[in-house]
Amino acid sequence: MSTFLQVIVNGLGQGAVFALLALGFVIIYKATETINFAHGSLVLIGGYVAFAVKPHLGWLVAALVGVLVAAIAGLLIERVLLAHSRNASPDSLAILTIGVDVIILTEVTRRLGTAAAPFLGDPYDNKAMQLLGLTVSRTYVVALVVAAILIGLFFLAFRYTSWGLEMRAQSENREASALMGIRSWRVTASAWAVGGALAGIAVLFLATNDIGGGSGLLSSHTVAFAAFPAAIIGGLTSPGGSVVGGLVVGLANAIAAQYVSLDFANVAVYLVMLVVLLARPAGLFGKVEQLRV
Amino acid sequence: MSETVAAPITARPAGARKTLLLKTIGALALGVVVFLLPLYLSSQYLLVLMWVFTGAVGAMGLTMLIGQAGQLSLAHSFFVLVGGVSYAVYASPGDKDTIGFGLPTLLALVLAVVTTGLVGALFAPISGRLRGIYLGVASLSLVFLGFWLANQLPSIAGSASSGRYAPSLKLPGFDFGEQNPSLYVLNVEIGSAERSFWLFAALTALAYVAGRGALSGRVGRGWRAVRDNEAMATVMGVSVVRQKATAFAVSSAYAGLAGVMVVWWYSGLMKPDEAVDFGTYGTTVAISYLAMCVIGGLGSLGGSILGAAIVFGLPQLLPLLNGSTSAGSLSGTAFTPVVITNLIFGALIVLIIMFEPRGFAGLGQRIVRLVRR
Questions:
Q1: Which tens digit of pLDDT belongs to each residue from A172-199?
Q2: Residue B362 lies in a domain
C-alpha cells in the first residue's frame, strides 16, 4: 500500500511538471493556433543558460535567469519567425517550429558536449523527505507545490485580468476581437512568453536525478516530449484540460514504470493517449471542430 | 497542408508530343548516367548515393501522404522499421535465436512491402477519425510503440546490441551481394557495391514512376479531394475513410521498401535502436523524413529526392570531403558533420516555410516560369 501511495506521489509530482509544459503548450495553441514543436527546445535553452550561469550566480539567480531566457526565446520565435510568415497555414507553422527545434536541440547538445551530465535541482534533488509517514523524493513534492501555485495564478489571471480577457476573446474570434481594439500581436507575443517561462520553470524539475534520470538536462528534451500527449489528452483548446492531461501522463508513467517496466512507461503514456483519442478525437475537454459546408 | 497546388487538369497542348519526346530523351540520358556512375565513383561515394536513394523512397511515400492526401504523419520511421524487420523475417533462414522463413529474397521483398502497407492500413481506425496535428501526435505514438516492441521481441527484430542478418537480393543469375564477381563493364569489376547501387537506383526510379502514376490518376485525385475539403469530397462520392486508409497504406508501403533498403545498406544488418530519440528508426529520423518533404516541397515526388540528398546525403558526404572516415555523432563540442547538417536542415525548414512554402519544387517552378518568359 505504501509503495502504491509513493507511486501516486511520484506520478503527481511528474504530472505537475508535465502540466506546466502542457499548459504553456495550450496557451500558445490558443493564441496562435500553432502547435509548438519547439517546446522541448524552450525547456532546453532555459536549462542550458541556468546551468551555465549557476556556478557564478548561485542557484536561485540562475533559475530566474533561465526562466527569463526561456520566456525571451519563446517571444523571439513568435516575433521574429512566426509573425513574419503570415501566409503560412497553422500546420506549416508547426513544421517551422520543428525546424527551430532541430536548430536549438543540435546547438545546445553540441555545447553541452560529452562533459558530465548537467543537473539543475540543487536544493531538492536526491533528497528524501517524510510526508504523512511516507518516504518520498523532495523533487516531486516541491514540483507539485510550485506547479499548483503557478497554475492557480495562471487561472486567476486568465479569469480576472484584462490580459486573460483579451486572450479568451482572441481565441474565440480573432477578427472580432481585433475590431474591438484588442492588439492581436500583444496577445500572441505574451502567450509565447508565458509558454516559454513555464517551460523554463519545468526544466528546473526535469533536469534532476529524480525525474529526468541519470543524464540530467541532456534527456530533458526527450522527457519533455510527454507534454504533447499531455496536451492532446486534455484537448488542445482547454487550459484546464492540459492540467488534467499532465497529471494523467505523470500517473500513467509512474504506475507503468513501477508495475510493468521502466521501458514500458514511455509507451504507456502514448497508449493512454491513443485510447483517449479513439473515444474523443478532440481530447477530453477539447472543443470539437464543427465542419461547415 | 493546402499550400501545395494540385496540377490543373488541362487538355494536351499542341506541343505535347514534342515535350514527351524531350522527356523520354532526358529520362534515357539520366538512366545512362546513373548506369555509368559506379564505373567512375569509388564505393564510399556510392554508399552516400545509396543512402540518398533510401531516404528518397521513404520521403516519396511521406510526401504523398502529407502533401497530396493532407495527413500529417510523424510515424514514418516506424514503418521503415516494420519494413526492415519483415524483410529480415521473410528472407533469412532463421536460427536458434531468431525466427525466419528463408523465402526467396525477391518474394521476401514484395511480401515485406505488402506487410508494411497492411500495417499502415491497420492504423486506419485512428487516422480516419483524427485530423491535422492530432493525427501527427497520435502517429508519433507508433514510433514509441515500435521502439518498445522491437526491444521486447529480439527473436523477430534482432537484439538491440547485435541485431540480426538478412540476405541481399538474389535474382536468378544475378546476385546483388556477389563476393567474387566475374562481371566486368568497361574494365571495371562489378562487385556488390556497384550492383547494389544499380538496384537502389532502379528501385528509386520504380518508386518514382509508380508514384507519378498514382498521383496523376484516380487515386491521386481522390486524395487531393479529401485534402482540399472532406465534406466536398463526400458530397462528390469520394469515400473519405477509404481514401485516408489507402493513403496511409501506400505511404507505409513506400516506407517499407525504404526499410528493406536500409537493411541492405547496412550490409544486411537489422538492428533495433537502443534509444527512442537517436538512431535509425527513432523520432529524429521521423522528423528527418518530414524535413525532406518540406525542403523538397510538400507533395512533390522530385522534390523529395532533393530533400533526401540534403537531409540524408550531407551528413554522409561531409566527412568524405573532410577526409575523415567516421560520420561522427552528436557528442563532443566539435562541429561534426551531423551537427552541421542538422543546423542546415533546421534553418532550411524555417526559411522555406517563411519564404517559399512550396519548397524547392516551388523554386524550380518559378525558375522554369522565368526562363519560359
A1: 888 888 888 888 888 899 999 999 999 9
A2: no
Distance from CA of A92 to the nearest CA of B (A): 7
Its ipTM equals: 0.85
Gap from B90 CA to chain A (nearest CA, Å): 27
Number of domains in chain B: 1
Q: Which of B144, B148, B353 to mutate to test the interface with A (most CBs of A within 10 A)?
A: B353
- Over the Cα atoms of chain B, what is R_g? 21
What lies within 8 Å, CB to CB, of B45 at 6+ separation is: B317, B320
Confidence (pLDDT) at B179: 67
Mean pLDDT (whole number) for A72-100? 85
CB distance from A178 to chain B under 8 Å?
no
Contact A155, A238 (CB under 8 A): no
Whether residue B214 is contained in a domain is answered as yes
Closest residue of B to A83, CA-based?
B354
Q: DSSP readout, B94-161?
A: --SSS------HHHHHHHHHHHHHHHHHHTHHHHTT--HHHHHHHHHHHHHHHHHHHHH-HHHH-BTT
**Of the candidate ranges A115-119, A241-245, B82-86, the one whose mean pLDDT is the lowest:** A115-119
Q: Which three cell numbers stand for residue A114?
A: 560529452
Spell A71-98 as b/e; 16+ CB within 10 A means b: bbbbbebbeebbeebeebbebbbbbbbb
* Partner residues linked to B164 by β-bridges: B270
**pLDDT in the model for residue B15:** 63
Q: Contact B342/A84, CB-based, under 8 Å?
A: no
In a domain, B342, yes or no: no
Give the B window 136-175 contacts with A, CB below 8 Å.
136-138, 140-141, 144-145, 147-148, 151-152
How do the domains of chain A map onto residue ranges? 2-218
Domain that holds residue B130: 37-275
Going by the DSSP 8-state scheme, the letter that residue A82 receives in this structure is G
